[in-house]
Design brief:
Helices cover 36% and strands 21% of the residues. The protein is an alpha/beta fold and 509 residues long. It has a domain of 140 residues: 2-Layer Sandwich (GMP Synthetase, Chain A, domain 3), CATH 3.30.300.30. A hairpin with an 8-residue loop joins strand 1 and strand 2. Helix 1 crosses helix 6.
Length: 509
């Protein structure tokens, strides 16, 4: 019988929780920046930006300009790649997280240092501390912890340097104590064929007392469906994991999945915790309920800056940090980290619901804005409207993409086309109601969209086209492999790509 390590863990996590809730965010961020600058002062980047003379947040912001991935790659990482010795962080970078990063699918190689791995583990322990405080009867270490990620097979880039999925890097660098609880075993974790991996891990997990489950909701949902089906065949308890204490999710908006996920754990006291991880660092995690914001990871080897989204095109945008942020402003996230990333625009946008103990909501991506006709829709607005429309027809939207169809000689008005994968098949009447609710929600939230939809002279009604259940794994992924690091392209501005997706949906019907 597996030893229940929960009682010992609770004692340690209780102390961690007390420190966590007592943290002064402003003081913590000053300390983090000072430590990062001091540590990297002797690197190429540190010398180039006179780190030795930086003594304040303001000094740092004057010395270090905002950069995107392409800038860091071109100026510092690409020339010596894959051997980054003392380039932007002391020593050699041992890992690179490979991420699509954009809907175009172009690969990015994000440095992951040993300090960053410790940072990520520290954030994960904060999540456990919050869970332990919220659920005092939870036995979260009485069984395996199931991390559903991509293949853990890494590519050797050079001696001592490896690249691959962030989940793979996390799996092979787990602390020794955590390895005793890890599932799946290496023979399954190494599988690169995603369908085979889901099938075999579902079968292998059937008789395991899974206590913690971590993964992207869209893929976890498929796993739960398969496990439930296998249990039904055996005449077992229909709950996929009846002992589950904690489900940790992130990477996509959870609202379209919440009801379907919760249905698998009816009658169980399972704690759902959202996290905000990125290849660049562990940004935030839920310490309260849904919609109350995610707590910024202010004391974990990261320094945060925030630029108002409407200043992104400015040559000298205002650079806020936790000492100057305001609530209800849409900000672009800028990171400085213990992986040698400095004032790096990661491409995500957030707004704060609390600034004293910084808590944020993810609103979208800087590149995820749909404005083909001047409508200026951001990701948060589109996803909220999708959720409203799904609720209106009593169906879930598992995945979706949206793109513009422009006016031509035969089509006087442009419009948006949503290609959506629903939980269950819809009919024409349901899709019409979905489109109507979606349109009304967008008009309610966005003045520019409402103006372009009014008067019959700007945009036609949105069009809904259905992707068959499961079809999104091939169509939405653009042929890329499954897993946590492959992002569904929400907004498609390439007419050829949008048409290819629509053709795929029709051919799969």
């Amino acid at each position: 019988m597996r030893l229940d390590a929960t009682p010992i863990a609770r004692l340690l996590l209780k102390r961690r929780y007390k420190r966590l809730i007592g943290t002064d965010a402003v003081a913590a961020q000053r300390r983090q920046l000072a430590a990062l600058v001091k540590t990297a002062a002797g690197t190429t980047f540190g010398r180039d930006h006179a780190f030795a003379s930086i003594g304040s947040v303001e000094d740092f912001q004057r010395a270090v300009p905002i950069r995107k991935y392409e800038d860091m790659w071109r100026d510092y990482w690409q020339p010596p790649f894959p051997i980054l010795d003392n380039v932007t962080w002391p020593g050699r970078v041992p890992f690179f997280a490979v991420s699509s990063g954009t809907t175009s699918g172009a690969s990015k190689y994000i440095p992951v240092t040993r300090a960053m791995r410790r940072s990520n583990v520290n954030a994960a322990m904060n999540v456990l501390a919050i869970h332990a405080a919220a659920k005092p009867k939870s036995r979260f270490f009485a069984g395996p912890s199931f991390m559903l990620g991509g293949s853990t097979e890494l590519v050797k880039e050079a001696e001592g340097v490896w690249s691959g999925d962030l989940s793979a890097i996390a799996a092979i660098t787990l602390p020794r104590w955590a390895q005793a609880f890890a599932f799946p075993p290496n023979d399954l974790a190494l599988l690169s064929d995603w369908d085979e991996k889901l099938r075999r891990t579902a079968e292998a997990s059937l008789d395991k007392p899974i206590r913690i489950l971590t993964g992207t909701p869209s893929w976890v949902l498929i796993l739960l469906e398969r496990v439930a089906a296998l249990r039904a065949e055996r005449g077992d308890n229909p709950a996929p994991y009846p002992d589950l204490s904690l489900f940790i999710h992130g990477g996509v908006n959870f609202a379209p999945y919440r009801d379907r996920m919760a249905a698998f754990f009816t009658g169980q006291d399972t704690d759902f915790r959202e996290v905000y991880p990125a290849s660049e660092g562990f940004i935030a995690y839920a310490d309260r309920g849904p919609g109350e914001g995610l707590r910024l990871n202010v004391d974990g080897g990261l320094f945060f800056e925030f630029i108002p989204v409407d200043e992104l095109g400015s040559p000298d945008p205002t650079r806020h940090w936790v000492g100057t942020i305001q609530p209800d402003v849409n900000y672009a996230v800028v990171l400085t980290t213990c992986a040698g990333i400095f004032s790096y625009l990661i491409g995500d946008t957030v707004r704060f619901v609390d600034v004293k103990t910084p808590r944020l909501l993810i609103t979208g991506r800087t590149s995820w804005m749909l404005s083909a006709f001047g409508e200026h829709l951001i990701g948060e607005e589109i996803e909220r409207a999708i959720t409203d429309a799904a609720d209106a027809i009593g169906n879930a939207v598992t995945d979706f993409s949206v793109g513009p169809v422009y006016p031509d000689a035969t089509t006087p008005l442009g419009r948006h086309v949503f290609v959506a994968e629903f939980g269950t098949k819809t009919d024409a009447a349901a899709r019409a109601r979905f489109a109507e609710t979606l349109d009304a929600a967008l008009q309610r939230m966005n003045d520019d969209y409402r103006a372009h939809r009014g008067g019959g002279h700007g945009m036609a009604d949105p069009m809904i086209e259905e992707m068959p259940a499961g079809g999104g794994r091939g169509g939405f992924g653009g042929g890329r492999r499954g897993g946590g690091q492959n992002k569904v392209p929400r907004v498609i501005t390439d007419p050829g790509l949008l048409q290819a997706l629509r053709d795929y949906a029709r051919s799969s019907a």
